[in-house]
## 1
Amino acid sequence: MIRSQMLAGVEDQFDVIIIGGGATGLGAAVDAASRGYKTLLVEGEDFAKGTSSRSTKLIHGGLRYLQQGNLGLVMEALRERGILCRNAPHLIYHLPFVIPCYKWWERPLYGTGLKIYDALAGKLQIEKSRHMSREELQSCMPTLQTDHLRGGSLYYDGQFDDARLAISLAKTAASLGASVVNYAKVVSLIKKKGACVGVEVLDQISHTCFSAYGKVIVNATGVFSDELLRLDSEAAQSIITPSRGVHIVIDASFFPGKEALLIPKTSDGRVLFIIPWLGSVIIGTTDTPVPAVSWEPSYSEAEIDFLLKHTQQFLSKRVEKKDVLSVFSGLRPLIKARTLNTASLSREHHLFVSPSGLITIAGGKWTTYRKMGEDVINQARKVGNLPVRKSMTETLPLFGHREGVVPLTPLSTYGSEEKKIKALIEKNRSLGEKIHPKLPTTYAEILFGIQEEMACTLEDLLGRRTRALFLNAKAAIQCAPHVVQLFNQSPLWQQEQLETFYKIAKHYEVIPNVKNF
Ligand code: FAD
């Protein structure tokens, strides 16, 4: 995937133009391209720079919805979970979860709920849920708080690296003929007789503008949807209520083992996850309404304290602020209840057509991105009067598809592309070295990100092509001066990159005794 090649021809006439390169937009681009529609996706920043690189990294049915009795939604997500495991076995792997039971009634309650969860997955079930004794639980989770522990309920869901799945989707769309361009921000919509017929785009790398025309335009900008709707009509009503979810990352020694922990009820009535991920542990998340949207949402002291307090209740090894290696926040694009003209096809994601023909899709979750893509392109076909063609994504292997990948081994998420990275190392042994002793990433992955994955900035490389910034902010900052050199750009350009990166990286650091906002 080479950006200059993607840019060549963007001024053509397209069938479908998609604005936004997160889970939703990328899913729509894959769907449209799989039907043979001429497709352009423009992403204002980097692929998955928004919410889609800041998720809890679960491909799940959503036990929360089961608790609410929303069986349809759970079934849809479980079906999508199964499809994704089949289409991207290199990116999605099975993760065992334990719900600890401290009271006598918890075991039958969770056990029954999980049997229903198993049954709803049907033939796409991962493995059957079961009860775990106190002893079994102690041996697989040696740092779990054991006072009054009676045992636990074990079940399975999927886990993934969200930013890597986004890159695989971008490559899948490109391999099907779509043009996908990052750092291409839509600054206005082109209208003809009131109908939306194209987009005016600012290329944030060359600082030039270009126009692209499409029979139908899709707004898949997540929490930024309102901004696009206002470009369409100054009178557009706001549809998004952003809510912040914060995660902290700690060292695996606090929670060694392969299983994740689900705390079913926090003090604010939410579920909280403690999850092994890429050799570290993620804890999250919170739910805090915020007044404004941002590409780098911050966190509050209260949110960190909330996560630490609940972790301390469940782990015997005390985790403190100084132990937090990284913190990342994401914004949920929650849809306001009073949103007009909703032609929603699933109760979780919302899709509607503005009078100009602009289609907006928002909400949902990573797990259901494929179904959202299919739904929005079905709608786009009608609005754009495109030839009737069926979505192919249900059985479409995603880019890099490879069976038999051993999850969490070095380079496993690259699937069939692994050989290209190994070839880089064979040519130059020093590329096999790690960028930092505390990070799993090698220089070869960095170079591959620049050469084949359209990484344009230092932060693209350390934040999303590799997950250094999310795993250990301090280590990412320390290795940044070495990593930036692989871009082979002028010293001035490298210095600017470093300065920008250090500013962004501050959002990922928790500095004890320093008040945040
Ligand atoms: P985004 O990822 O925000 O993408 C929108 C894109 O539009 C952005 O990249 C932005 O740069 C771009 N854009 C904005 N304006 C413009 C413009 N003018 N021109 C061009 N581009 C523009 N789901 C799960 O299934 N599993 C989970 O474990 C999970 N955990 C979550 C945890 C948290 C804290 C949150 C907040 C969400 C979680 N989700 C999870 C939900 C999931 O992450 C989101 O539903 C999904 O990522 C939303 O994707 P999106 O493409 O709609 O939005």
## 2
Amino acid sequence: MKYQVLAGKLSKIEVTSKRTEMTNHLVELFKATPPDHIRDVIGLIRGSPYPDYEDFQYGMAEKMVIKSIANATGLTTNQIVEKMKEKGDLGKAAEEELAIKKQTTLFTKLLDVKYMSETLDKIGRTSGKGSVDTKIKLLAGLLTNASPLEARYIIRTILGQMRLGMADMTIMDALAIAYTDNATNRPIIERAFNISSDLGLIAERLVKEGIESVKDFKVTIRHPIRMMMAQRSGEKEEIFAKLKGTFIAEFKYDGERLQIHKDGETVLIFSRRLEEISEQYPDVCEMVRAQIRANNAIIEGEVVAYNVETGELRPFQELMHRRRKYGIKKTMKAIPVNLFLFDLLYLDNKDFTNKNYPLRRKALEKIVNETEQLRLAVQKEITSEDELEEFFESAVEKGCEGIMAKSIQEESIYQAGARGWLWIKFKRDYKSEVADTIDAVVIGAYVGYGARTGFYGSLLMACYDPIENQFKSVCRMGSGFTDEHLETLQKLLDQYRVSKKPPRVIIKNSTVPDIWIKPTIVLEVQAAELTLSPVHTCALDMIRKGSGLAMRFPRFTGRIRDDKTAEQATSQQEIIDLFKGQLKKIE
Ligand code: ATP
């Protein structure tokens, strides 16, 4: 299949923000794709030949890409930089320069998607001495044979700037329609994605073996499972009602969630974002190797920093010092950790995700040798509000954030990738202010004055709407920042500055920021309350015509949620639920 066909569709998808139109373009594309090419096509749409959990990067900075364009067009790098400034995008700059050059060249070979994937793979895998030149040559080779439109998307792929505004859910909708003629089969594809995180593999299975085979998709060791999430509640009665009177409560540890895959002596650790982070936690790998009695297993737990002398748990912020690639041995000593295990998803080649929670926990207990550093999450069966209150107090006293209430009913399976009522979090914050902190995405910044001259003065924050795949503004936040925060955030956000409004960002004219930020960084925000707002676009028209929802007196808690992607930020629906919960309290 020619890459040209794909680039043509991408250019149509890029200019629409309507999900149904995007889906239709994708359906046409998939119908034109030969079965042996579907995996490559999915990779090229998503921007990488590999699923997200593979730590694969092209390793080409903008400067190198400019050199490749110079090689392919015969222009100087300065000329290309000028064009980039004019167009505001290197992809468009390359497209235009190539269009001029192509008028004078006759011989180019048509790029096909297999060749494209292989070359992108080569670019990513080239490393070591001389690799800069090799990468530049490989990319220049692609560009020499590319049509102008193809060049636009090749450059954006390499720079990780596809800008299509398309969610995986839309790709799944299109796969269901293209290959089963029935959009209602999407949940089957979604489940397979939730337990494997590899859309290319699922698409190939669907095309070659049909939807029945996708239904049989099994958990595979070393393929991360999308994590199950919890609903929140501040009402004890609601927890009892949702969990049918009796449930298990567990300490809610305040650390980092890990999904651990033990396969023989190999231990792989995946983060909440499903990135492989085994290298950050050699001590956890060692504990698991030594203390988990299983040939292979997938287990989940929370890793928490602790004080060796007193045994006390330390706040989440301390664990952040472990977020690094170098000098791990030193930080490992300075910040020792405990691991609290709370789930088992796979054991000795058997999928446990469809088993109920009591069975999973029992199986987990059987394979863990508890030590001082490696323990099972503390839990208790709860049948009355007094027991719940007492357990909650003991959790807080031990340095936990609150508790997790978990269903023990027959239906209490591990719901990969879903935020359902089988797990309910009940936290200390619920007793004050808005019933929970909100994880909001930075989408813009306003310049600072007075003491903040030279820094950002305030930030425009958004929630995520997974249905429209859009980021909608929910507040302008200017408090809670220490000088240290201001400096850290400035450095961090500067990496994501863009010249125009990112396509997935939806705001009103009255909130246009001085600087646009690509939705990437998630910050934890506490607010006094949620209010109807004429200026913010979260839940616009959903509660009252012409109004959205906004956070009032938003304050940065100091916590950068770098364990979350922008799409894992608090959703529009969660904010609506919090708003309704607030009304209930007033009533
Ligand atoms: P929060 O912001 O409240 O941490 P979140 O959005 O990161 O929530 P949720 O799934 O909503 O994630 O809340 C559950 C989180 O609590 C888990 O992701 C996990 O990191 C942590 N956690 C701590 N202890 C437990 C436990 N015993 N069982 C399940 N999750 C736990």
## 3
Amino acid sequence: MTEKTKFPEHFLWGGAAAAMQIEGAHDADGRGLSVADVYTFDPELDKKHWLDQWHMMTHAQVEEALDPSGTRNYPKRRGNDFYHRYQEDIDLMAEMGFKAYRTSISWSRIFPNGDESEPNEQGLVFYDKVFDALLAKGIEPVISLCHYDMPLNLLKSHGDWTNRGLIDLFVHYAETVFNRYKDKIKYWITFNEMNCLKHHPYASAGIIEENHPHLEQAKYQAAHHQFVASALAVKACHEIIPDSKIGCMISYLLLYPNTCHPEDVLECQKEERVSFFFSDVQTRGAYPAYAKRMLEEKNVTLDIQPGDEEILLENTADFVALSYYMSNNASAQAGEHEKASGNLVGGIKNPYLLQNQWGWQIDPTGMRYALNVLHDRYEKPLFVVENGMGAVDTVEDDGSVNDDYRIDYLKRHIEQMAEAIEDGVELMGYTAWGPIDMISASTSQASKRYGFVYVDQDDLGRGTLDRSRKKSFDWYKKVIESNGRELEQPAETLEQSHTVEK
Ligand code: BGP
């Protein structure tokens, strides 16, 4: 008799995606461009050193993207064509037995310019169809209000999130979708990975660095406005959908001290607080004590309006959602050590860990550690809404994709989630990132694949977009059927796989 599962009875197993990486149809049925539609795929990309090639957004790039006669390759405008194939994709999710599917609503599909008073009905109708299709299969939608895709036109009409006026526009958008979908959606997330505003201010807050000589001031003022907007969305959600649960979300960029030298340990704590700052404010409802010195050292003076602090305190998140992919090391002498890459930010290489082809260090034990840290810190329910292994999958002659490396990556992380639950963590669910291949957020690649389902599309948009099941499809189906008890050993381990490096 195999041992019983450690996962709770109604654990929300499933998958996660984002409008800007799957939908495509960037200008269909009234949709306006979003900031995500400006990113191009760079054919000169060096996967392993993609972070070194990363550059801040420029006015020129935005203007070029707005030029209707432009010929650049904008993969996020194509996605994987979910907009037209959502029924087929939801059928595949149902075949795997999904209990939940996390995705986002495209703000610029509902308010094409971001500041209209009336919503775009065709945009609302699309999500009605998607949510109805999910619910018909018994799949609980978990919806993010904004996932790196604020309306691009806001940058012209109102500017970026340093403009306090965006709070009201965001709340109007949130109230519109809460009212429209109050009988369909009960799990919501406000901003995707709000802590990444620190590292990618354009994707998160529309901040073009050329506009802000004091960039740190801009980032943290934008963060304050998003904190207020997030809290007001929590308030509206509870008023409009009484039994709703609305969470905040961070990318858990796990860090270890590079050595036991006290200076490295202190540096690690300092860098960890850069991320915890965002979940602290949204979960505790106030600026943490360390924020005063942290902001002073950055010469940042926040403009906090009367009433803001009460709004934050009275409307904290119901749960803490997180993405977890990898870990990095932190050192007081960072420049002296070999670098590693990571999800949107890098760090120092950990000699004990394998890396994927983009240099992300694979650390399943870190999943347990991260969940324990967050649960100790907030004592609120947690939800792993992103975890997965990006890889260049190979299609065999018979059309199969033997992604044993992905099975092993997921198996090890699920095992560690089970340990965390045993440790006392209240875990709501697990939605593996990218259940159907899509466009990568950081590199805009179709070839950086996460899915249980393969999509025939390359980085230049060539292919049939046909879907096919990978080896991991049936593996994950068994995981869900057994509520996490059946974690079959893959034929090949990560260590044996060609897709990882030491
Ligand atoms: C997270 C984003 C997701 C997703 C994931 C994987 O930070 O919230 O949108 O893309 O990273 O990253 P990537 O797609 O760059 O491999």
## 4
Amino acid sequence: MEKLNFDTIILGGGPAGLAAAIYAGRGAVTVAIVDLNMFGGQPSNYMELENYPGFPIVGGYDLMEKFEEHADKFGVQKFPMQEIQNIDLKSKKITTKDYEFTAKTIIIATGAQPMKLGVNGEKEFVGRGVSYCAVCDGAFYKNKTVAVVGGGNSAVEEAMYLTKFADKVYLIHRRNELRADKIIQERAFKNEKIEFVWDSVVKEIKGDNLVNTAVIENVKTKQTSNLLVDGVFPYIGITPNVEHISGQLEQDASGFIVTDSTMATSIDGVFAVGDVRKTPLRQVITAASDGAVGAVYAVKYIETHKEAVLSDVTL
Ligand code: NAP
């Protein structure tokens, strides 16, 4: 196993991690960025974004490619597709299948992932009718009927995206009012392929080899019914990616990492940025902003720490 040491190690190569890499790289410290997958994070799967300033419309993948190229400019060392075995935040040591990384500071930018419905059939039919990525799998549902679950921006936007392929899209929401932004709601209400199923939750997903039914329950009448669908796309929110990290530092009740305004966590020299931290807004722009703040304070931490070491020596 190869041993490598850096001033800063960034865990996660989505918008927060890549922005942190750019700012730390510019701060003239040695920076490595480590990810379980390829870089780009969640936005790589978004068809397009229309709220990243300077880019009225941009493909998610294209924007993330630009972030990565920008980080390359500052000599950031990249370690994609790493199989993480252990993360010890206090000693700042990260062990993967191939490397043992040590660092002076760690910036956690591991993001978040879709929450699961937790109903029978969900796990069993993943890849056979259950999907958490309309952009990845939408094309399989040409002229078919699908259900999207949830009422937030993700559910409504992905339902609209799926109407490019599917003949009909049910949007199943547990209340009778959407949580999504008004502008997004208005577009969805105008889309004739979307049928809203209000006050309802999915109780079970059924099928043979492939999904053919979503069993739904009306939460007000308690009546259950079968919706005949070829696919189910749950978009009911996100949960932080804190495997190997949870329990080592302060988190909120949902597991999101608590930071101060400099992105510092409860562990000295460890920062958290982007969707993984407790934050009121999770967007590419806020992730990038967090990354910038966290990296600047990580660099300051390294400088202060250096001074402390020097003064120790002088004493
Ligand atoms: P979200 O905003 O948290 O919405 C989750 C939705 O799922 C809510 O409508 C919620 O219902 C419903 N839900 C939660 N648990 C459920 C369960 N067990 N069963 C059934 N329904 C359930 O999550 P999101 O839509 O994934 O968005 C996450 C973040 O990314 C948000 O901050 C969002 O604004 C942002 N985002 C922004 C954009 C954009 O600006 N273009 C696009 C995508 C995502 P209730 O409403 O009843 O709570």
